[in-house]
Every structure is written in C-alpha cells, then in structure tokens.
Amino acid sequence: METPVSTSVLTYADHLEEAARKPGHALVYYFRDHYMQFFHPEGRILDLGSFVGATVLHYAELGHEAVGVEAAPTYIRASRGRAKALGLEDRATFVHSMVEDYQPDAPFDACCCTEMLEHTPNPQAIVNKAFECLRPGGIFFVTSPA
C-alpha cells in the first residue's frame, strides 16, 4: 500500500512545478511569490544582488517601484534590457554598484536578498546595508542555502 503524501507537500510541489515553467530559478519564484503577502501593494522594494532582474521585474509588473542593486555590469545590462522589452523602465530600476556601497535616494518599504549572502566575503555588511535602506518598520527577507 502506498503511503499518502500530505496536501502541503503536494501544494509545494505544485507551486514549484508552476514556477519551473517560468524563466529563472523555481525556488526563487516560490519565495518571491511568498513574500508578496507581506508587502504593501504600493511599497518600494529593493533587491540586493539582483542578478538578472527577475525579482525586480516581477514586483514592477505587479505595480511596485522596484530597484535592483548588482555588482556585475553584464547582469545590469541584461536586466535593463529585459525591463525595456517589458515596458517596465518606469518602475524597474537597476543600479550597478557593490551592495555595500549603494546609497538609496529614499528609504524602501521592503528589501529582499535571495541566494546572495553566500557569495560575499562579509555577509554582515550586506545585512547592515539592507537595514540602512529600509524605512522604520520596513521588512527584510533573506534566503541562503543551509
């Protein structure tokens, strides 16, 4: 007799299956969609280590003002190109900067840092920067491999 699989596992598996059909990494999509329940619909969102911009573009598509900070110029060019192709240049901004050096023009309501801390020599500096960029009461989400 087969052991039944719990509904929560099926839901998670189904969600990842759906996310896998989108361009990009499925787990990032899972977490990114999960974060949405905590964000105010008009909130400003910062993505530290934005890679090729998938998270920033997703939030911009939902109507948020979203800013991605990325140190790699190739990824910044790709992100800006994707924003232009999607008509999201007015809501999706990509800044070429080391995260530690980034200076926001205004505080953010939320900050994401997904699968990036493990690639930096000083993760605490990244966490400190995230909190510097947030408004009082802002939300910081971080994911990193165990």
Automatic annotation (TrEMBL):
InterPro entries: CFA/CMAS (IPR050723), Methyltransf_11 (IPR013216), SAM-dependent_MTases_sf (IPR029063)
Lineage: unclassified sequences, metagenomes, organismal metagenomes
Signal peptide: none
Pfam families assigned: Methyltransf_11
Annotated Gene3D superfamilies: Vaccinia Virus protein VP39
Gene Ontology MF annotations: S-adenosylmethionine-dependent methyltransferase activity
Domain Methyltransferase type: 46-142
Protein name: Methyltransferase type 11 domain-containing protein
